[in-house]
Each structure stands twice: as C-alpha cells, then as structure tokens.
Amino acid sequence: MRIYEYPLKTGITRTKEFERKKLASHAVNVGTKCGHGCTYCSTGSLLRMHPCFKALGLSPFENGYAIVDPATPERVARDAERIRKRGVVQLCTIVDAWSPEAQEHDLGRRCLEAILSEPEWTIRILTKNAAVIHDFDLIEQHRDRVLVGLSITGTPDKNDAVTAIEPNASPIAQRMAALWEAHARGLRTYAMFCPLLPGIADAPEQIDGFVRLAVECGAEEIFVEPVNARGAGLKATQEVLNDHGHRAEATAIGTIRQVKEWSRYVVRLVSAIQRSVRAHYDLDRLRILLYPSRLTAEDVARIRGDDAGVVWLGK
C-alpha cells in the first residue's frame, strides 16, 4: 500500500445527501482515497475531478494506494467550535477514519476528541476496521453522543471472498466482535449492512443472520444498501474474485453487471430484508438506501407496491 499525503481544505461540512439518507447532517473525511482497497468502491467516480489525483499523478479508479491528510483533526476542531447549528457528524462518508493509513496518524481518535470537545454534536462512526475498539474508552466518556457502526458485508463463512475484495479491512468476525463489544460496554450502536453483494451476502439465511446480529447488539437502526453499479467497481470485483478462485461468487457479480439483472437483484434484496426485519426487528427502524435510476420501471413499481423501510434517493 502506497500512502500519499495531500492537504484538504474542509473539516466539518454539511451533507444534504447523507441527511436524505437519515444518517447525518454533517460529514468529516480524513482523506480522498481509503486504504482498505474495496474493489466495488464508487468513491473514485464521485471524486474523479478532485485536484489531488492530478497533483499526485494518480488515477482515482485504481487501488493499491491511499491519500490521507494528517492535519484533518485541526480543521475539525476549528469547525466544531465555529459552527453554531450542530447535529450529527458522520465519521466518515467517503473514506474510513480507522483504515491503515488513518491509524498511522490516529485520525479516528483525534477527530473524535475534536468534535466531542464541543457540546451538542453527535457522531456516527462508520468503519470496516475493528481497530475502533481501541477508542471505546473515549467513546464511553461520551456514550450518549456517539453511535458505533461496523460495516458488515458478509458472513464469517464468506470471509475469504470478502477479504479478496476488501483486502485491508478487518475480517468479518472481528467486525462483528467489535459491534458486540460496543454493545456489551453500553455504547450506542447501529447496523450497516452495505453492500450486500449477490453470492456473498444476499441469501435469505444470511440476511436473517444480519438482522439477528443487529438485534443482539442493540442496534438503534438498520441501514442496508445494494451495491452501487456506477463505474468499473463490479467488473473489478468480478475479476478479483475469479483471480482468488471464488468462481461462483464472481459469476453472481458478473450477472448483475447487466442492468436488468441488477434491478432484479435489488428487488430480491429489498423483499428479503423486509421479510426478515418484519420477523425479527422493527420495520420503523429499517432504512434501505435506494437510488432508483438504474431500476427498470417495472421493478420500481414492484418495490413501491411495498416500500416499507425504503429511503428513496436521487432526484
């Protein structure tokens, strides 16, 4: 993993998109390229015009490197004090504050300290790294103001496939253990199952397991999202799975590269999640984040016929 440093300009910013997702009103990001190296990540498409890539001579669509700004906590501290209309800050929205390069500078903890030093802020943590447990001592001091979330993208039996496409993230079992520990220590938790990839995390019995995990860990809400089909992420994911010998999973990913099949996958996923949540949890606390632009008209109508828990996004 090659690590680059690039100075950013923002600390805490408003995020209307994540407000629509019911996740946060504000965002913090500690860099522009996450070192977890997830093959399906759509951040490259979102940030392709950011000047950091041109300045460093890098492609936003390639993996194998990370871009981080070690000075982020100083800007966050400034904004945490300056901003008067306060709300929920997501740490982070496009990168991970506990990824390997972020850990080198202790960015997760330093950003937590900067925000929590000011009243009236709440923080929603989202990470794929179990290293967040090292900061539970700090979170315990502000337990009412921090929500802990570990992104769960598979079941432990699929860990080899997940590791192939999320090479620098923590193993699934460690992420689950971190969420359990957060609950055991009396911390606020929420569940983030995103993305639930076909062949890896979308079987009904897997979804039941995810929902039961959320219940056991006292999750205040469950967020679910199908994989984003934007850019070359699905192709890269299929190729990596094939290269690592996960043929069946690669075939399942290859299938949804076709628009109609992606749309059908989403319909099946939404239905399976709703069925499981109705059986094991609380439908009022389900948030299925869904952009309908790539769905067929028929499938949009099908989902709208029962869109309990669906948060419709986009224009």
What's this, in brief?
This protein has 14 helices and 12 strands.
Could you give a short account of the major beta sheet? 9 strands, mixed
Count of individual beta strands: 12
So how many helices?
14
What is the rounded Rg? 19 Å
Shape, principal axes of CA atoms: globular
**Which strand order do you get reading across the main beta sheet?**
2-3-6-7-8-9-10-11-12
- The name of the CATH topology of the domain at 128-312 is pyruvate-formate lyase- activating enzyme
Describe the fold and architecture:
The chain has helices at 16-20, 43-46, 51-56, 72-82, 100-104, 107-116, 136-140, 159-165, 172-184, 204-216, 233-243, 247-255, 259-280, 297-304, and strands at residues 2-5, 12-14, 26-28, 31-33, 65-68, 88-91, 122-127, 146-150, 188-193, 219-224, 286-290, 310-312. With 315 residues, it is an alpha/beta fold. The chain starts with a strand and ends with a strand. It is built from 14 helices and 12 strands. The mean pLDDT is 96.
Topology, element by element:
Blueprint: E1 2-5, E2 12-14, H1 16-20, E3 26-28, E4 31-33, H2 43-46, H3 51-56, E5 65-68, H4 72-82, E6 88-91, H5 100-104, H6 107-116, E7 122-127, H7 136-140, E8 146-150, H8 159-165, H9 172-184, E9 188-193, H10 204-216, E10 219-224, H11 233-243, H12 247-255, H13 259-280, E11 286-290, H14 297-304, E12 310-312
Parallel strand pairs: 1-5, 3-6, 6-7, 7-8, 8-9, 9-10, 10-11, 11-12
Antiparallel strand pairs: 2-3, 4-5
Helix pairs in contact: 4-6, 10-13, 11-12
